[in-house]
Amino acid sequence: MKALQVSRVIKKYDSDPVLRGVSLSLNPGERAALMGPSGSGKSTLLNCIGGIDRPDEGVIEIGGQSLAGLDEDALCRLRRETVSTVFQFFHLLPTLTVSENIEFPMQLNGVGPRERAERVYDLIQEVGLSHRSGALPHELSGGEMQRVAIARALANRPRLILADEPTGNLDSATGEAILDLLEAVSEKNGVAMLVVTHSPQVTRICRRTLEMKDGRILGQTDSE
Amino acid sequence: MIHLSGSSRSEAGSVGRVLWSRFIWRHWCREPAMTAMLVGILALGVAVFLAVRLANKAAVSGFGLFTESVSGESDFLLRPRAGYLEEGLLRELRALTGATPVGFFPVLETSGALAGNPEGSLLRFVGTDLVALQNAANGTGSEGAEKGNGGSIFARRDGDLSPIGKTKSIFAGKAFAVRQGLKEGSSVALLVNDRIVELTLTGILPEDPNRAAVPDNLILMDLPGLQALAGHAGKLSRIEIRFPGGAGRDRLLAEVAGHLRKFAGERDLILESPEDRKSSVTQMSAAFRLNLTILSGLALLVGIYLIMQAMEAAVVKRRAEIAVLRSLGVTPVQIRKAWFIEGLILGLIGSLAGVLLGRLLAVGLVGAISMTVNTIYYETTSSAVTLHWGEAVFSLLFGVVASIVAGFIPAREAAMTPPAQAMRQGTQGGGLHLLRRWPLGLGFLIIAGILALLPPVGLPGGTVVPLGGYLAAIALVLSASILIGLLFRPVARLLGFGTSNPMRRYAGSQLRRPEGRHRLTAAGLSVAIGMSAAMAILVASFETTLTLWIQQLLKADLYVAAAGSNSVSNGNSISAENWKRIALMPGVAGADKLQRYTINLEGKDVFLGGAEYNNDAKRFLQLIWVVPPTQTGPDALAVSENGETPAWVSESFARRFKVSSDDKLELPTPVGKKSVRVSGVYAEYGNETGTILVGREQTSRWFTDESLSNMAIYAEEGADVERLLESIRAEFPGLVARTNERLRSESIRIFHQTFAVTYALEAIAVIIAVTGLGLALAGLLLERRQELATLRSLGATRGAIAAASLWEGLGLALVGLAGGFVLSLLLGWILIHVINPQSFGWTLQYRVPWVSFGALAAVTLSTAGLVSWWVGYRNATLRSDREE
After folding, report:
1. Cα distance from B795 to chain A (closest Cα, Å)?
2. Residue B262 in contact with partner chain A when CB distance is under 8 A
3. Buried (b) or exposed (e) across A28-65, using 16+ Cβ within 10 A?
């Protein structure tokens, strides 16, 4: 079963097509980079896969489950359990500490306190922030914030992580470190990852690179 | 200093225009609902403030002298210090002024009521020389005199002048005639003292736009008619003196006024201008009206917090925009100016709407305020509310200044923040730094403590203003607004305590690091709650004290009074013949008897009571003592063996005249000055004028008067009180008879009616504050739209986001409530122990109405919860700026 299957997805805004029949798939644990110029439809595609937006046509299946028939509550459940997103601007909840930010999706998902505490501990260790667990987002550097965002994305053991320019707001050294981390957690947890990026650096952690332009996938390059 | 050249000035002007048209105006258009809400809040605040001031003015202007409405204003009034003037004085006055054309109008004024409604509002019976008044009216060229009535204001439509001189003819205003369904020539049964008399409405007094409106409770009669009716043959309440107009008036006034002053001085009479008289009477209620005005300012004060909050939100929201403007070369001064203009325009629109709304609200308030003034101070009528331009402009300015001040502080902070920092901050953090400085809050608290200890300030006219108390209250409010910030952490902890509900914990986390908006909202809420709860403490303390007082005072079985006993200025009496008959009725064991007079002591009107207590050591009226006398009991007010007349004075009197036990007073009476010695000070909450009580034996000799104002009857053991009541009512239909229970409930009802305006003002303040809470949350969620998008991406449903908003709103309300209640305990203390004794001279017992507090908390929390959930639910689907 594919971790992600996107078939002939079309999305229009005011009759202006942004996605023009996009198809792609990801195997479990597979990482793919989605590259393309601004306005090519990358973020819209990510939003549709994450269930934040709905396509006008086509099918999106995550772990074999189609998003088409899901109501708002079911989409919320999907975002809690199956798909997580890592953003360029981190989007940590500013009033929650590092550990609370990581714990939050588990609380939404009804995970028990003991299990939560153990997983928060493990995830903080995994992303190398055990010394900053009580810090608030504004006290962290950009790299640290993105590590927290990655730990948060992993909190409910999703099948798929969508990363939207995860290194776009970081200096190159920190960006490299974040890519290493993404690769490591994906390998360790067997999570599929679709990374939207402008940066050719990112492709080094991905098996495939998909080229997108004007709402279409123009082609793909295998790294191996 | 940099001076702008001509071109720089025009550049500055064009920047200002761009800022106005491209930013301020467009922001308003983008958020019309928010702009309308802001204007609405300001309008409501200004409206309440103006309405109370207009209603106060209308209630006070109801006190007037009748000639103003009939023939214009007199130049002087001559009145006695106690009792009545003798009619013969007129002859002496005429002899004094000789051939000079000075007009003298003898006036007898007394009160009455409608025969069918002795407990209803008072009627003012005024008897004067109608012929002289007619001539005066003609002399002034009154429209009504010349056109409407064939040259005479007292003639019937057919031109018949014969009603003048008739003893049973009355004249009244149109309002009275319409209300009672009377026409010229109709008969009407009225109560004068305890007698029902049939009188004929001979004419309707014409209204003249150049004069004061005819009061709707005025009954005008020819002097001899009223003297006969009231049993005051040859007596006058006052003589009004008028000088002719035209050239030579000033010379005549200067010449004769000196003679008149000498004349009055020699006879220990009072000579004053009508304006002096009015202001000395209305001064009595100045403290009450000032209190109401200050209370009405509460709505405006809460409104200021809300405007500040909304302006702060707008500044925060536009922070990045301001930073871009700064980076493009706009100076901080230009940015501040833009905000100044925004505050000014919003203030102008809101205040103008408030003035219109206030005019309408005043109509509703004037009746309630007049009733309180009538009950506690002096007789007045509910005059029509007119929009005084001075008041309107004052309220308008108040609203505009409030709006500008509210916008200035956040704008100043935004303008001063370096652009790079502002851009980095985005919509996070910042806010009013002033509210984060808790040592400043502590400083205000200490200042409040010091101010509360200051003595009151005396104003010209004798009014005492507890300025220190008011300033202490303001300092307390400022202190609470800042110190309330310390409550956020405990409340945040409480929200997160013992729960794994993520939205509740998330809401708690918002309060752990409160933004400026949180602090302002909580401050506004705490001010509204604090001031409302403080008023509730005052009302509860007043009610407790009053209930105890009534319980102590009302121990007789029945109470009998002449009509109009609910009004402090009631002059009706029970005739000696009638009260003696009542005392002899079967079933009556005894009675406390009281007659009350108004005397002028040291230039101030006070009450002098003649009390005679039931001759039963166990059953007689017992007062609550502030300074107890050495002897109490039925005979305690009898003249002592050494010939001294003992007197008890009320607490208000003691404070007003700074007297205490053992002090001597020289009282003016119709038979000359009488010396009394103060032997006790008692609590009295019926009036704040002040009362001196002496034995009735003395007053009946001094005033040659055996009548009573009221009597408290003790029934014989085993007597049927209800039957006795019915017998008195049947035999004396002109008197008001009530059982003990009825009088108690009536007193409490009047008390609550007196505070009706207060309750309404409190409710408005709390409504404004809770609206502000909703507004604040809506603003916060708008600012957090990115966060909301993140929450949704993490799987939070719309309901979950609404729940987070609900918890945050409840947390905020809890902070506001906790801070408000602490503030109210302190404000209540200042109201009861500083402002109230200094303004009114009343000692009250401090009582906290916990049940009312609980109700206020329940209403606030449930409303806040509802509003917050709704706001959260509506805004849960806001799209983030970065979502495509």
Report:
1. 4
2. no
3. eebbbbbbbeeebbbbbbbbbbbbbbebeebebbbbee
